[in-house]
Amino acid sequence: MTYRAFVAFSGGGAKGIVHVGALKALEERAVQFEGLSGTSAGSIVAALVAAGFKADELIDGSGATILNQLSRIDPDLRSSTDLFGKDGWKRVKIFRALLRMPFSFGTLLMAFWGLYSLLSAIIWFCFPRFGLPLSLLVSAGLGFSFWYAYRTVIGGLADLTRFRDALDRLLQEKIFPLEPQRVVTMADFGVAGRPSLKIVSANLTRRSLHLFSAGRTPKTPVADAVAASICLPVIFMPWKIDGELHVDGGIVSNLPAWPFDEERELDPEALTIAVEIEEPPSRQTPGRYGWLPAAVRTALSGSGELNIRVSGPAEQLALPTRLDLLDFDVTAEMAAKEVRDVAAAAGLRLDKRLFRLPEIYRNACQVAQALVLDGLGIAPGGRGSSPRVRVGVGRLERGYGRSLRLSHSVGFEEDADESMLVPLDGSVAGAAWTDKQSILEVYPLDATRDLPGPANRLRRKSRLRDLAWVMCIPILDDETGEPRLLVQLDGNSKLSEDAKTLAALTSVEEAVKDFFGMVLHELKDLEDDHGLQK
């Protein structure tokens, strides 16, 4: 089976190299990319993949990377640290060292004040006649040094121009090899068999999120969009496009799965795969004066839950890594190892979530369907208006608490209510879930359980019209006693009101509970695995 997918890659600085491992796992499972989006480091991967580059072209097992191709275009780009310019990486290394020192900003200010006080005391002691003018001179010198350091840091430690130009040429050679003067723009994606591409930055001029796409910014060069998205504040100088300043998109949306809302509506069965980089919890609680670095990391990675709230089938890959945000000087061997480790872990999770989990649910639904057909004496294979039985599994979606999604089913293939979101209030499924007891109802249903009210109008229209009965069986978690999932059985054959039918349905209920109870532990293991094992 080929999966169609919209894939979003998060930001993460140097840690973004692990995206290549996730990409390799997706390629090995023949996932077809319908659209790609990215922020910061993720925008580089998204742009290259959309242009047709494969994981092994970005970094292979020997440690060879896309930089080998960039260095062919610009010989000065031989390593990832060369992306910062000749002196830029030196400044970034100093900044990184300061960040890793075990003191707060308040301590730094106290040290600065202490240095000034010490120099002033030495001057007054050694040169009492010139103490005042020399002290003023020292104050001016330290003040200028502080001002210069501030301007350097705020203005950006490195320039992206060289990387931007090399990326622009690389994309042109990949997509339009016979047109050396061609500039690859956002409009070149989503056409000619290429997936759509969407890139996020923070527009400082407009003070808003900025989405680069074929629909919104068709004439923007992709290299400029990427340069804008990866401008990590302090590290890189803000990038200017059409007179507007842009910085790292992670500030406003670090995991942009949302830009494909319309595409997912048009292709509701396509997967959304959100590839993010794990941000391990801090081992130390931020203090009153040391909260700023934690605030920056929270701003870059804390909005992930909002960014991946999407409709339709979705998977989240949380990638572990030993790298840090500014570890651009990592060796090729270590980079290759990170990619291999992540590819293996991501592949394991994809196998679980894309193959094993649906297989278990589908097999369980088929078993439940066979039990009902056998118990009620209905011939299998019914279609249309002929006697048939449908089985669906209702589950709470991530972040939801008032509805169940019929996420896996058999017998619904030709019906509009496949994958319906069923409200807990006003439905038989909701009553069974809330009461933690199985419920059997025959049609016409009681008005309070028949999807009442204007909010359910479209649900009532899409529901199979000739249903005769419905049975909802909650499957409880042995540990918590709370419903873990719900099995909904329904059919279009009128039930006989005799003891034999009642006994058959009771046997079906017990058999369904027993069977789903047996597979529940494996289901829990697969569904609770929201991240990757390190």
TrEMBL record:
<keyword id="KW-0472">Membrane</keyword>
<feature type="active site" description="Proton acceptor">
    <location>
        <position position="248"/>
    </location>
</feature>
<dbReference type="InterPro" id="IPR052580">
    <property type="entry name" value="Lipid_Hydrolase"/>
</dbReference>
<feature type="short sequence motif" description="GXGXXG">
    <location>
        <begin position="11"/>
        <end position="16"/>
    </location>
</feature>
<feature type="transmembrane region" description="Helical">
    <location>
        <begin position="130"/>
        <end position="150"/>
    </location>
</feature>
<feature type="active site" description="Nucleophile">
    <location>
        <position position="40"/>
    </location>
</feature>
<dbReference type="InterPro" id="IPR016035">
    <property type="entry name" value="Acyl_Trfase/lysoPLipase"/>
</dbReference>
<keyword id="KW-0442">Lipid degradation</keyword>
<protein>
    <submittedName>
        <fullName>Patatin-like phospholipase family protein</fullName>
    </submittedName>
</protein>
<keyword id="KW-0378">Hydrolase</keyword>
<dbReference type="Pfam" id="PF01734">
    <property type="entry name" value="Patatin"/>
</dbReference>
<feature type="short sequence motif" description="DGA/G">
    <location>
        <begin position="248"/>
        <end position="250"/>
    </location>
</feature>
<keyword id="KW-0443">Lipid metabolism</keyword>
<dbReference type="InterPro" id="IPR002641">
    <property type="entry name" value="PNPLA_dom"/>
</dbReference>
<dbReference type="GO" id="GO:0016787">
    <property type="term" value="F:hydrolase activity"/>
</dbReference>
<dbReference type="GO" id="GO:0016042">
    <property type="term" value="P:lipid catabolic process"/>
</dbReference>
<feature type="transmembrane region" description="Helical">
    <location>
        <begin position="103"/>
        <end position="124"/>
    </location>
</feature>
<keyword id="KW-0812">Transmembrane</keyword>
<feature type="domain" description="PNPLA">
    <location>
        <begin position="7"/>
        <end position="261"/>
    </location>
</feature>
<keyword id="KW-1133">Transmembrane helix</keyword>
<feature type="short sequence motif" description="GXSXG">
    <location>
        <begin position="38"/>
        <end position="42"/>
    </location>
</feature>
